[in-house]
Amino acid sequence: EDAAGGGGESETQEGGPANTHVVAHHYNELKEGGRRDRQKSKIFFMRNFNNWMKSQLINEYMALIKESKRVGDALRVLDMCCGKGGDLLKWEKAAITHIICTDIAEVSVEQCQRRYQDILERAEKSKYANKFTAEFFACDSTLVRLRERYKDVTLQLNLVSCQFAFHYCFESPGQADCMMRNAAECLEPGGYFIATMPDAFEIMRRKRKAGPDAKSFGNDVYNIKFDCETDPLPLFGAKYQFHLEGVVDCPEFLVHFPTLVKLGRKYGLKLVRKTTFADYYKEVLPHGRNLLQRMSGLESVQPQRYGNDEQFAHVSEFQASQRGRPLGTLSKSEWEATTLYLVCAFQKCKNTWDA
Ligand code: SAM
């Protein structure tokens, strides 16, 4: 019954699972393009959209946390697999007081720290900006106990966020257990662990649709190629090569969601939300529409249909004309890529029995 424990992963000579090195290398090598490069990207709209989805998720759970706090109380966050710090502005806006940022890719952590310094400098000049403290370190969250690296090992967190990254730990039971313990163990009761990750169910649905002879499937912005036995699929190490235009090209692992829930329970985390991106978009659009418009730099956003999926359309002559697309829409390929994901949230219980 216990999903955790055990090992079974292929080890490298330095020790540690083989794929984490590949993943770290991939993200370390990733160049940070300027806004101009991003605008040229085939997934420009999707990146804005994903950013907006993260904002919605962060704001939803920060609001719940604040409901149980008094003005002036500390709000501490762990951004696990923080990357280059793409969410730092979201944390600033959420008025947190302290953040711990960690990622396996040292280069990304350095960029994240620089981004934080920029935010701090701006905040120094402005009376109104929110100043928050931060700590940074590079490490593998699937192998290392993070709390031992915190400046204060007794620190209690209000929120742990792991965006587009938790699936990397499903390489082996030991790694998944370690990552879940890292997410849970410093959360105070009532605190939340929030994540976005690929939806294994949706990936397998598309694989079946592609047919038994298809070596890979996807479209012009994403591609998935399985690199393991798929009949039956293993609970851990269900490896596939994921390619996302210009951003990701590395091995990933299917997250068996019932196993994730069981692992959470082991560490006192109770599942409170599991929603596909397509459904979460519909749920949050009514109150998130203005922010989506601002984040996309667009004048208005309207739902549009792709098959059965309602999807937003950017009404922006400016950007659309630059890209030779129907007036300002998230392309069908981008919509298919973004709807590979789900959002989930867990709440920390007083003791594991409650979870
Ligand atoms: N969370 C960031 C965001 O939303 O912009 C970055 C997401 S990026 C798709 C995935 C990140 O997970 C990369 O920065 C990568 O280095 C990190 N990562 C992958 N495996 C990891 C591990 N075992 N430990 C820590 N970070 C890891």
Overview of the structural elements:
By secondary structure, this protein is α/β, with parallel strands linked by helices. Helix content is 38%, strand content 23%. The protein is built from eleven helices and 13 strands. The protein has helices spanning 18-29, 35-40, 44-67, 88-93, 106-125, 173-184, 200-210, 257-266, 277-296, 317-323, 332-338, and strands spanning 76-80, 98-103, 133-138, 157-163, 187-198, 217-218, 222-226, 239-244, 248-253, 269-276, 301-306, 309-314, 341-348. The strands form three sheets. Strands 3-2-1-4-5-13-10 form a seven-stranded mixed β-sheet, sandwiched between helices. Strands 6-7-8-9 form a four-stranded antiparallel β-sheet. Strand 6 (217-218) and strand 7 form a beta hairpin. The longest helix has 24 residues, at 44-67. S-adenosylmethionine binds at residues 20, 23-24, 27, 81-83, 86, 103-105, 108, 140-142, 163-165, 168.
Can I get a quick summary?
This protein has 355 residues and is of the alpha/beta class. Helices cover 38% and strands 23% of the residues.
Keywords:
355 residues, alpha/beta, seven-stranded mixed sheet, 11 helices, 13 strands, 23% strand, globular, binds S-adenosylmethionine
